[in-house]
C-alpha cells in the first residue's frame, strides 16, 4: 500500500480575494497540488464584516483548489491581518536547569515562556511569541542558546496580538464553513516565509505586503523579527481615488487600475456615471493618481516604523501583495522610503504553472510553508520526548543491573 503524504492547506483571507493553496509534503519539499481563489465579499480592512458572504467566498475558493487536486481538506492554516493586530516587545529570564548548567531546549522554552508573561488587556489575545535573541549570563544576542553553558538564560521576544472579537469572528466563520483552523498566522510573516532570502533576513530587511484593505509590515535583523505593524490602507484606497478623481464607478475604477497595471493602452476609456458621456484618460494621469496614494501609504509605513526605531533595514525593503502589479510602485517606494526596494514573488512550484509566481499569492504560499514548519517542529518535539523517555528507561535499567 502506498503511504499517503501529509496534506497542508493555506487560506489567505484578504479584503479583496480569498486564496487557497494545497500542498503535499514530499520529503523535504512541498508539492503544490491545487490552488483556488474567489472574490472576498465579507472583509473590510482585514476584519470580517459579513460572515455569510465570506463563508461563501471561502467555500468557492476551496472548491477550486479541490477540483484541481482531487482531495478533500479539513484542517487549514489561515492568515490574519487588520488594524486590530498589534505588537509589543518583552523579555524574561530563568535559571538554567540542565545537567552541568548546560542549556537545553526545555530551558530555552522556559525562557520564552517567561518573556511572554506580560500583562495583555482582556480584549486582546496572543497570536505569536517570536524569539528575537537570547542571553546566557553576560553573553548577549545569541541566536540559539541550546548546548551552551551558563547559570541564567534570558530571552527577548516579539509578541503579536490581535483583538479578541476580530480573531474569534474569523475563526468562527472558517469553522462554520466546514473547516478546522489548525493555526492563525499574521499575514506578513507568511509572506516573508515565501519571499525573503536567508541573506536578506540575516542582513536586515523589511517586508511590505500591500493588500486590498491593509498594508502589513515586518522587519527582520540577524534572522529574527524586530518590528511589525499594520497600516489600514491598501489597493482599495487606490481604486477609490480613481473612482473619485475620474468620476466613474468603483467597479470600472478597479478595471482601470488593472488595465494600467498591465499597461495595455496609452489611453484608457473611462465609463460614465448616470448616462454621462464616456471620457478618455491617459496612462500618465492614472499613474499620477495611483502614485499619490502609494506615496501616502509608504509615508504611513515610515511613520509607524519610526515610532520604535528610525534605522532603515540594511537590505532595504521587499514589496509583495496584489498592489505590486502597479508599474510605478517600486519607484515610489524607493523615493518615499529612502532605501532600495525590490518586488518579490513566491518561488514557483511544480504542478501549477506560473499561478503562484505572482506577488498576490505570497501569503497563501507562505501559509503552507509555515504549516510545514509547525508540523516538522511538532514531529521533532515528539522525537525529543521519546529519546528523553528512552534515555531515562535505559538509565533506570542500568541502575537495576
Describe this structure in words.
This protein is an alpha+beta fold. Among the domains are: 86-162, Dna Ligase, domain 1 (2-Layer Sandwich), CATH 3.30.1490.110; 197-343, 2-Layer Sandwich (Nucleotidyltransferase, domain 5). 39% of the residues lie in helices and 30% in strands. The chain contains ten helices and 18 strands. The protein has helices spanning 51-69, 105-116, 164-176, 187-195, 198-203, 235-245, 250-262, 283-306, 329-337, 362-400; strands at residues 7-13, 17-26, 29-39, 43-44, 47-48, 75-80, 86-95, 124-136, 139-142, 152-163, 180-186, 205-210, 215-221, 224-231, 267-270, 279-282, 317-320, 341-343. The chain has a five-stranded mixed β-sheet with strand order 3-2-1-6-11, sandwiched between helices. Helix 4 (187-195) packs across helix 10, helix 6 (235-245) packs across helix 7 (250-262) and helix 6 (235-245) crosses helix 8 (283-306). The radius of gyration is 23 Å and the shape is globular. It starts with 6 loop residues before the first strand and ends with a helix. Mean pLDDT is 89; it is low at 382-401.
Q: Architecture of one domain in CATH?
A: 2-Layer Sandwich
CATH topology-level fold name of one domain: Nucleotidyltransferase, domain 5
- Number of alpha- plus pi-helical segments: 10
Mean pLDDT: 89
Give the SSE string. EEEEEHEEHEEEHEHHEEEHHEEHEHEH
Which consecutive residue ranges, at least 5 long each, have pLDDT under 50?
Answer: 382-401
Distance between the termini: 43 Å
Question: Oligomeric status of the shown chains?
Answer: single chain
Structural class designation = alpha+beta
Q: What's the CATH first level of one domain?
A: Alpha Beta
- Main sheet makeup: 5 strands, mixed
Name the CATH superfamily assignment of one domain.
Answer: ATPase, nucleotide binding domain
